[in-house]
Amino acid sequence: MSRCGAELAVDRVCKRFGGLKVFDEVSFTIAPGEVLGVIGPNGAGKTTLINVICGKLTPTSGRILLGGRNVTGAPFHALSRAGLVRSFQQTNTFGGASVGENISRAIRFSGGRRASSDGISHMIEKFELASRLDERSDKLPYGLQKMLGLILTYATRPKVLLLDEPAAGLERRERTRIDDFVRHAQRELGCSVLIVEHDMDLIRRLCPSVLVLDAGRVLASGPPAEVLSRKDVLDAYVGAIDEEAA
Ligand SMILES: Nc1ncnc2c1ncn2[C@@H]1O[C@H](COP(=O)(O)OP(=O)(O)OP(=O)(O)O)[C@@H](O)[C@H]1O
Ligand SMILES: [Mg+2]
């Protein structure tokens, strides 16, 4: 894969915890505005990969490039300010604060890269948060807390969004909200998105390209129609997930 013009490049990255090698020599790029799905069995290292990219963890070896700049080892806050922003597998709101205050804080954090308030208002309406601006975020139903967490990432106007299982814990009918969110962020911000998910329907809908992590390596990458029908991928992962979802 060419790294020219990539918004995010992960170059031969390895992560160990002591003697445990979580992954080794993982490489991929995401072009500006592209959505990449990352899938793999529980414990494959998907969250660790996000943590390494966003600066929560330091890679054992390898490089992370943001817009062509080597940001390997830069701390989480510096990377967030530079536009590399993540969501969490659980929720990521400021618990004691109201919904409105949560959004104000995220906007303040964005500094000069402020997202248009129209774009934010659109999502507040669409995800049924408009009538709840004065409620404490940690008292919201779980699905709305997750959507608020995504709006907070949007409000910081990211260049690259790293989404860790945005659909987890959402009811089936709520899951298309993730599609709406990602498409809105792409359209309004032109940002690149890395999305970790176990929901294969969502991956097929949203991601022109998918990467499969398994046992510490990239097992396969390419268009979902191709990758998700490969026998080794089915054996390692997808068969079990699709059966679970049926
Ligand atoms: N801080 C840590 N110290 C030691 N081992 C860790 C640490 N964080 C993660 N691991 C290990 O790294 C491996 C990968 O974990 P990770 O959470 O990245 O998997 P995952 O692909 O996100 O799984 P899931 O689909 O369940 O969310 C696991 O074996 C986990 O126990
Ligand atoms: Mg995880």
Please provide a written account of the structure.
This protein is an alpha/beta fold and 246 residues long. It has a domain at 8-86 and 159-245: Rossmann fold. 37% of the residues lie in helices and 24% in strands. The chain has 9 helices and 10 strands. It has helices spanning 46-54, 76-81, 99-110, 117-126, 142-155, 176-189, 200-206, 224-227, 231-245; strands at residues 8-17, 20-30, 35-39, 61-66, 69-70, 84-86, 160-164, 192-196, 209-214, 217-222. Strands 6-7-8-3-9-10 form a 6-stranded mixed beta sheet, sandwiched between helices. Strands 2-1-4-5 form a 4-stranded antiparallel beta sheet, with helices on one face. Strand 9 (209-214) and strand 10 (217-222) form a beta hairpin. Helix 3 runs parallel beside helix 5, helix 4 (117-126) packs antiparallel against helix 5 (142-155) and helix 5 (142-155) runs parallel beside helix 6 (176-189). The chain starts with 7 loop residues before the first strand and ends with a helix. The mean pLDDT is 90. The structure holds adenosine-5'-triphosphate and magnesium ion. Adenosine-5'-triphosphate is lined by residues 17, 20, 22, 40, 42-48.
Series of H and E elements? EEEHEEHEHHHEHEHEEHH
CATH homologous superfamily heading of the domain at 8-86 and 159-245: P-loop containing nucleotide triphosphate hydrolases
Largest sheet: 6 strands, mixed
What is the tally of helical segments?
A: 9
Q: In CATH terms, what is the fold-level topology of the domain at 8-86 and 159-245?
A: Rossmann fold
How many beta strands in the DSSP annotation? Answer: 10
- Bin the strand percentage: 15-25%
Bound molecules: adenosine-5'-triphosphate, magnesium ion
In order across it, which strands form the biggest sheet? 6-7-8-3-9-10
- Global mean pLDDT: 90
Distance between the termini: 35 Å
**Name of the level-1 CATH class of the domain at 8-86 and 159-245:** Alpha Beta
**Structural class category:** alpha/beta
Please give the radius of gyration in angstroms: 17 Å
Low-confidence stretches: none
Q: Helix content range of the residues, please? A: 25-40%
Write down the overall geometry.
globular
CATH architectural label of the domain at 8-86 and 159-245: 3-Layer(aba) Sandwich
